[in-house]
Amino acid sequence: MKASLLIFAFVVASASLKADEKDAMLEEGVKFIHAMWTDVIGKPELQIDPVPEDGLKALIGTWRGPYIGRSAKPELIFELNEDGTWASRVVGPDLDADEIADSVQTGRWYLHSGMVLLYDHPVSKDEGVNSALFKKDGKLRLLAVQMDGGFVELAQHDRAEHDGADQPATASESKPEEDGTQKAKPEERSQ
């Protein structure tokens, strides 16, 4: 009986240690985002409207925003999924399927300190933060050092307005058409 209690106590202690380590790594990610904002982008201290845990559900979905790139009118399509994953791609009227496929990024997200931290893989000692979503003045922004303001302002994507452009931006999906949309699979067309 005592051995079972000791094993149970060890497992609980190990799990909380891992949670503490994860929290510390996420806190380092927040510090890195703030350093990118001030030291790389050259802005004053990053001020955000913290996203509370109960407000996260409103961010789940597909978002769009103007972007930079080789296209005449590049647009970033960003997806935040309920399962803790995210995906993005850049589309434009003059980008070919390979260019769009090359722009695909995916990863894991974590809500910490009022911002959504974006990682390429699950957070670990070997994994640094990629970027972050944050709210300011009621608008959702994606930190992007290459953009003039240091961010992409995102707007919720209305799936009814864009036929096919809301397909997941995962590398395993079929390649998008030249205009950034994806063809429906044959079984989807007949519905």
What does this protein look like?
This protein has 191 residues and is α+β, with helices and mostly antiparallel strands. The chain has an eight-stranded antiparallel beta barrel with strand order 1-2-3-4-5-6-7-8. The chain is built from three helices and eight strands.
Topology of this structure?
Elements lengths: L1 H39 L20 E6 L8 E6 L4 E7 L5 H6 L2 E8 L2 E10 L2 E10 L2 E5 L7 E6 L29 H4 L2
Antiparallel strand pairs: 1-2, 1-8, 2-3, 3-4, 4-5, 5-6, 6-7, 7-8
Primary descriptors:
single chain, 191 residues, alpha+beta, eight-stranded antiparallel barrel, 8 strands, 26% helix, globular, disordered C terminus
Write a concise synopsis of the structure shown:
This protein is α+β, with helices and mostly antiparallel strands. The protein has helices spanning 2-40, 97-102, 186-189, and strands at residues 61-66, 75-80, 85-91, 105-112, 115-124, 127-136, 139-143, 151-156.
Query: What's the total helix number?
Result: 3
Structure class = alpha+beta
How many extended strands?
8
Question: What does the radius of gyration come to?
Answer: 19 Å
Shape: globular
Q: Ends: how far apart? A: 59 Å
What low-confidence regions span 5 or more consecutive residues with pLDDT below 50? 1-17, 160-191
Which oligomeric form is depicted? single chain
Largest sheet: 8 strands, antiparallel, barrel
